[in-house]
Amino acid sequence: MKEQLLQIKADAEAKLAAVDGDAALEQVRIEFLGKKGALTAVLRGMGKLTAEERPVIGQLANEIRAAIEEEIAEKKEALKTAALEKRLLEETIDVTAPGTTFPVGRRHPLDQVEQTLCDIFRSMGFTIAEGPEVEYDTYNFQKLNIPENHPARDTQDTFYITDKVLLRSQTSPVQVRVMEKQRPPIRIISPGRVYRSDAVDATHSPMFHQLEGLVVDKGITMGDLKGMLETFARQMFGDSTKLRFRPHHFPFTEPSAEVDVSCFVCGGKGCRVCKNEGWIEILGAGMVHPNVLRGCDIDPEEYSGFAFGMGIERIVMIKYAIDDMRNLYENDLRFLSQF
Ligand code: DAH
C-alpha cells in the first residue's frame, strides 16, 4: 500500500508538470484528490490493514494528500503569473509609433472677416443686433423710405414668399426694427444674409452677406460718420488707409455717400486689385433720413443719426484678392484651406 501511495504521488507530480491551463489543473485535482479519485480508492482499502500498519499508512496518505494539494496550489499560482506575463507582453504599446492625425477644420473666410468686422465695431462700443431673413415688405422697403413702385426696388429685386413677405434684400431693415424697439442713444451693427434675384456669376450670388451699422443720438453729424469709418478702415486695411466719400443716393439716408478706401496693395498708385483706380469702393453710408426716424417715432428735430452698409463678400474678396465670388460658396477644400 505504501508503494501504491508513493506511485500516486509520482503520477500526480508527472501530470501536474504537464498541466497548461486551469481546466487541465482541475482535471488532475479530481483524478487524484476527488471522491472517486486515486487517493480515496487506496484509503478505502485501509480496512484490510493491521492495527500497526493503519496509523503509519494513514499518516503517509495524509502527507501525500497535503503535498499534492500544495503542488496544485503552486501550479495554480504559476499559471496565473504566466497568463499575466503573456498578456502584458501581447498588449505592449509602442508609444513612439506615429499617432493618427485627425484633420482639423477652420473657419470659413467669410466668417473670419465677419468676426473681424464685429470685433472692430465692438471695440468702438457697438452692440450686435439681429433681424429676420424672411422679412416684411414694409421693413425691407417702405419704412426705409422706398414706397411701392420706387425705382430703387429694381436694383434690389428679391424673392417673394407672398405679396407682403420676402427674403430681405439688405440688412437695412434691422435699422428700423432696432429704432422701433429702442430709444436713442443707439449704436448697433447687424451682420447677416441677404437675398437678391441675381444670376450667379463672378461677382453676383442670389444669397450674400452684409453688415449694417446705425448710430442715433443727439447731435450726430456727418463728421462722426467720417471719423468712425476712418477708424474702422484703418483697423481693417492698415494704418495708412485713406477714405474717399462720393455723393450718392440712397432713399433712407440724406445726404448719402459711397465710400472708397485707398488701395491697400498699391497705396493709391493703381494696380490689379484696385483695377488701376487707386481706390476701392467698400460701402454705402449717409445720415438717417428724417422720414425713417419719424416712422420709428424718433423726432428728427431732437435726434440725428448715421447709417452704413457693406457687403462682406466684397470685403473678403478685396482683402484676399479673390476674383471669383463662387469660390466662397463651393466649399472646395483646396481653396478654403488657404485661409
Ligand atoms: N442697404 C444698401 C444696399 O444694400 C447699403 C446701404 C447704403 C446701407 C447706405 C446703409 C446706408 O445703411 O446708409 O445697397
Summarize the structure.
The chain has 339 residues and is an alpha+beta fold.
Fraction in helix: 40-55%
Order of helices and strands: HHHHHEEHEHEEHEEEHEHH
Question: What bound compounds does this protein have?
Answer: 3,4-dihydroxyphenylalanine
Structural class: alpha+beta
Overall mean pLDDT: 92
Structure description:
The chain has 11 helices and 9 strands. It has 339 residues and is of the alpha+beta class. The chain has 2 domains: 2-90; 109-336, Bira Bifunctional Protein, Domain 2 (BirA Bifunctional Protein, domain 2). A 7-stranded mixed sheet has the order 1-4-5-9-8-7-6, sandwiched between helices. It has a two-stranded antiparallel ribbon with strand order 2-3. A hairpin with a 2-residue loop joins strand 6 and strand 7 (253-262). Helix 1 (2-18) runs parallel beside helix 4 and helix 5 (109-123) crosses helix 10. The termini are far apart. The mean pLDDT is 92. 3,4-dihydroxyphenylalanine (DAH) binds at residues 170, 172, 212, 250, 253, 284-286, 307-309.
Layout of helices and strands:
Blueprint: H1 2-18, H2 22-33, H3 38-44, H4 53-90, H5 109-123, E1 127-128, E2 134-136, H6 137-140, E3 165-167, H7 173-181, E4 186-195, E5 207-217, H8 222-237, E6 243-250, E7 253-262, E8 279-288, H9 290-295, E9 304-311, H10 312-320, H11 333-336
Parallel strand pairs: 1-4
Antiparallel strand pairs: 2-3, 4-5, 5-9, 6-7, 7-8, 8-9
Helix pairs in contact: 1-4, 2-4, 5-10
The structure holds 3,4-dihydroxyphenylalanine.
